[in-house]
Amino acid sequence: MNHRMNRTHLALTVSVMCGAACLTACGGDGASSVGSDGKTTVSVGVSGNVFDMSIRLADENGYFDKQNIKIKYVTLTASTGTAALQSNSVQFLNSSPTSYLAGLSKGLPELSVATNGGGNPLGIVVSTAFAKKHSLTADTPAAEVAEALADSTAGASSANTKAEAGIFLKAHGVDPTKLKWVSLPSPAADKAALTKGEVDWFITSEPIPLQVQHEGDGIVVADPTKVPEWAYEQAGYGQVVVVKKDYAKNNSATVKGFATAVQQATTYLDTHEADDKAVLAAARESLPGVPDDVLSEAVSQVDWPETARMDAAGWKKTVAFVKDGIGAVPDASVSSDNWTNTYLP
């Protein structure tokens, strides 16, 4: 079996979210709508990153259609995803464990019904000038990269990704607090700051680092293949499909159909190359405008699980990473009441 982000801030109130974005919900539990064709339409919260692949592929390959499910996509951020789920604006949320555990820490009645991706598909990309000055290439060993970054100006648009850069640096004896850090508002701002020479490097989720490299503005010098601390085996981190508990209780057939389709998709991703025709088609839907070679490389950096089933040991590892590794949710915890394999085939 191959197992291959940000803390949620509930900034939007339920009333605002329900009034602004309620799409297919009807009823207090966010029950989905059934059309004249007998198919159930559900709204799914996605993030516009590589972890959306399993849901996009399930759609692309007709797995949802076989379960009589139609999908409406709602692009959300880490700060709006949980609020959208709680307000019934979406019935399913493709969530990072960080956001999910943050919701649980607030006592929200959420349930994880599948895992659909593992690891941290991150990239550290240095400017071409910094790479030339320090003789860095994509093949430079991790220890040499960390040593070169010890005296640099770094950019990050997320406390989580900054913390993950810190994990990498500390693993090679570099104190991340000694660097000059520039806090930036978004991954797009990371890229702009690098090209303007305002930072020597930045860290963010793929595909942006690989796209910067593709455009000739930088070189990716660290990724999960070079940094085992980011990989699923050590971090136990990835992506989960989350629903409200009452929605699962009242719409068990729909949840089972959705989870089944997602598992079929993750199995496909686990057993097919990143440049497979269907994989690339789904990647283009997830990340429009990104070159195919960048898409393939980004997809290959995720550990796609053969099965979407979860277990207590995996959650223990995930909680430790979120709570102690990156310090994103200091009171993070999860119990058997918070996740289930009941809806998986």
Low-confidence stretches at least 5 residues in length (pLDDT < 50)? Answer: 1-28
Helix content: 40-55%
The chain-level mean pLDDT equals 90
- Biggest sheet statistics: 6 strands, mixed
Structural class: alpha/beta
In N-to-C order, the SSE pattern is HEEHHEHEHEEHHEHEHEHEHEHHHHH
Care to count the β-strands?
11
So what's the overall shape? globular
Gyration radius over CA: 20 Å
Give the N-to-C terminal Cα separation.
Answer: 17 Å
List the main descriptive attributes of the protein structure presented here.
6-stranded mixed β-sheet; globular; 5-stranded mixed β-sheet; alpha/beta; 11 strands; disordered N terminus; 16 helices; 345 residues; single chain; 17% strand
Short description:
With about 350 residues, the chain is α/β, with parallel strands linked by helices.
Summarize the helices and strands and which ones pair or pack:
Blueprint: H1 14-21, E1 33-34, E2 40-46, H2 53-60, H3 63-66, E3 69-75, H4 81-86, E4 92-95, H5 97-105, E5 110-118, E6 122-127, H6 128-134, H7 142-149, E7 153-156, H8 159-171, E8 180-183, H9 187-195, E9 201-205, H10 208-214, E10 218-222, H11 232-235, E11 238-244, H12 245-250, H13 252-271, H14 277-286, H15 292-300, H16 312-325
Helix pairs in contact: 2-13, 2-14, 14-15
Describe this entry's structure for a reader.
This protein is 41% helix and 17% strand. The chain is of the alpha/beta class. Strands 1, 2, 3, 4, 5 and 11 form a six-stranded mixed β-sheet that branches. Strands 8-7-9-6-10 form a five-stranded mixed β-sheet, sandwiched between helices. Strand 7 (153-156), helix 8 (159-171) and strand 8 form a beta-alpha-beta unit. Helix 2 crosses helix 13 (252-271) and helix 2 (53-60) crosses helix 14 (277-286). The radius of gyration is 20 Å and the shape is globular.
